[in-house]
Amino acid sequence: MLAVMNERTIALVTGANKGIGYEIAAGLGRLGWSVGVGARDERRGADAVARLRASGADVFGVPLDVTDDESVRAAARLIEERAGRLDALVNNAGVSGSWPQNPTTVDLEGVRRLLETNVLGVVRVTNALLPLLRRSAHPRIVNQSSHVGSLTLQTTPGVELGGISGAYAPTKTYLNAVTVQYAKELSGTGILVNGACPGYVATDLNGFSGMQTPEQGAAVAVRLASLPDDGPTGQLFDDSGVVPW
Prior knowledge:
This protein is α/β, with parallel strands linked by helices. It is built from 8 helices and 8 strands. The protein is globular, with a radius of gyration of 17 Å.
């Protein structure tokens, strides 16, 4: 198995059983990569794997709850046993929480739940998979962020980013900051770390109110996961290019 797997680029996409994550896995599969479909719900994960395989993608299921230490360790062991390394990690799993999110009335437990998935989950998964990424010749980390996490855009007159978000948006701001720090620490190792803004995509995260399709939203993450060795690191991108922090 390892001999076969080592001929392919190996990727893991968290939260890949639906929406943008599913389309990221599909996009990487179209590149000829072998893609781990991370999913908290094993049944939904298995269904996603079956659908992706039916479309011709080389994928495998990875049971993965990014908020659970043992689940993350088990996922790392699975990938090590299956492939021996990891070439690209796409931290896509995320939650938006309930609305409204006025900071004066926000539920603190709800904020903690968002932080656990959107920020701590990324740190937990990245650190667990880092030893496998270090074995890759061209390692990439992509953190799924959002335009709403940009303090510059949030404070620019005339820029519309939706309503007040006292919980979800700050978690993406935090994630952006974490992405920068990973890029600084890993500078010179060959590991490129960037954030991706998929745009306003119609998913269950926003009640399917977005303007873009999940496939369109997946494009920037697929591009960042397959950057050349001289590509950027420590930046935030959408389809148009660099997004201000």
